[in-house]
Amino acid sequence: MKWIKAKGIKLRDEKGRFKKNTKSNINSAAFLMARAVKRKGIVGLRFYEKAYIAVSKRYTKKLGAAFAEDIAGKFKANLGNITIKN
Question: Of 31, 11, 13, which is closest to residue 21 (Cα–Cα)?
Answer without folding.
Answer: 11
